[in-house]
Amino acid sequence: MQNYLTPNFSFAPMIPERALGSRVWDIGGREYIDLSGGIAVNALGHCHPDLVAALAEQSQKLWHISNIYTTQPAQDLAKKLVENTFADKVFFCNSGAEANEAALKLARKHGRDRFGENKHEIVACLNSFHGRTLFTVSVGGQPKYSQDYAPLPQGIRHVPFNDVEALKAAVGGQTCAVIIEPIQGESGILPATREYLEAAREMCDRHGALLIFDEVQTGMGHTGKLFAYEHYGVVPDILSSAKALGGGFPIGAILTTDQIASTFGPGTHGSTFGGNPMACAVGSRAFDIINAPETLAHVETQGKKLQTALAALGKKTGVFEEIRGMGLLIGCVLAGPYKGRAGEITAAALKHGLMVLVAGANVVRLAPSLLLSDEDMEEGLKRLEAALEGWLEANH
Predict the structure, then answer these.
(1) What is the 3-state secondary structure (H, E, C) of 65-76?
(2) Cβ–Cβ under 8 Å, residues 141 and 176
(3) Are 224 and 182 in contact (CB under 8 A)?
(4) Which of 208, 229, 209 lies closest to 220 in space, CA to CA?
(5) Which one of 91, 96, 161, 311 is most buried, by most CB atoms within 10 A?
(6) Any stretches that span the bilayer, and where are they (predicted)?
(7) Widest CA span of the chain, in angstroms?
């Protein structure tokens, strides 16, 4: 097939045509087990009937009306987010990058309004990932994503992830915000320590800075709780969400308190499509299913089963030295001889009818549907084992 898209993506050698639950079929009719979840987006699998119904229903009523108006779907979803988190207010946008952009702009303006123009520095983690806008890619701390776009926004300091002393040394009177992923996603499914997040909260409180948790990947049930911060007992000032928030329909959001939200007065920030009625209608229906106690319990149960099975497979094949993560957000860390070859394993898996991801060159990542069944899990593991055995054989 002729490709008419820009070459910034290296597309897989198959074209998906339709999908249902955790199964995908390509244009040739071949079936795949999807344990990638559209990079942690399809939290309820593909084409969940309740989400299809919500979209169909809203599409007959109102598609877009502009942000001069609010809508019932936007208010309904915001209310659910507020009632189930620390937050009082929600800002809607379309993606995780936009959510983090809004969070960082809000923090900068809040610092300037309260303390003056010197209160502008952002402290972020090395090897983090916060999006692809110029601001978020600069905050991300991975030069490979930002160096080609210099000069970059200034006033950003990077510290090692989970290094409490480095964090304490970096945060001071000039800091307006500290931004952290509770589990670093793109860099290898690395959970933060409780001590690290507690230190971040303490330093922000001491210096009048805002604590931002980027929960674009960890949020909406992936870890077995609605948001990962609940595992740690550390509450942020701003939280960014996207990916699974819309169950596959594009939507992003930031959650914050009344006091901080007041910084965004009329005209200070905006989004043409933010709060789109269709996105919010789908997100609202997805929220009800994701936040149900039985769904979150299922995530915990299936997460334990899948992590145990992956550890056994790692031991059997020698390919994985560690399985880490929370719930159904899982990283399989490659053993020494196989470091740097995660991409080869995902390609081998695809040939065996299995969709998985990388999280850096050394980690194979799984972020399946929160409703993952035993049958689909077992079939996926069977295909992964076959892929690993074939790949090992071909490389000896």
Answers:
(1) CCCCCCCHHHHH
(2) no
(3) no
(4) 229
(5) 96
(6) none
(7) 63
Binding-site positions for pyridoxal 5'-phosphate: 96-97, 129, 214-217, 272
Whether 49-290 and 16-34+294-394 are alike in CATH topology: the answer is no
Query: Which residues does residue 177 pair with via DSSP β-bridges, in sequence order?
Result: 122, 210
In the annotated binding site for N(2)-acetyl-L-ornithine, the residues are: 132, 271
Helix axes 277-290, 72-83, angle to 10 degrees: 30
The amino acid at residue 129 is F
Give the whole-angstrom CA distance, residue 363 versus residue 342.
6
Whole-structure pTM value: 0.97
Please report, in range form, the residues annotated as the binding site.
Answer: 96-97, 129, 132, 214-217, 271-272
Helices (H), 327-373: 342-351
* Phi, psi values for residue 255, rounded to 5°: -115, 135
Residue with tokens 């399985």: 323
Q: Give the β-pairing of 31-34 and 354-355.
A: parallel
Q: How far is CA 122 from CA 125, 163, 175, 207, in A?
A: 10, 17, 6, 13
What is the pLDDT at residue 272? 94
β-bridge partners, 32: 24
Cα(302)–Cα(307) distance, integer angstroms: 8
Asked if residue 84 lies in contact with residue 291, where contact means CB atoms within 8 angstroms, the answer is yes
- Cα–Cα distance between 299 and 375 in angstroms, integer? 15
Per CATH, the architecture of 16-34+294-394 is what?
Alpha-Beta Complex (3.90)
Sign of CA dihedral 194, 197, 200, 202: negative
Q: Which two tokens stand for residue 129?
A: 């990932």
The CATH class of the 49-290 domain is alpha beta
The 10s digit of each residue's pLDDT in 195-227 is 999 999 999 999 999 999 999 999 999 999 999
Q: What distance in Å separates the CA atoms of residue 285 and residue 175, rounded to the nearest whole number? A: 38
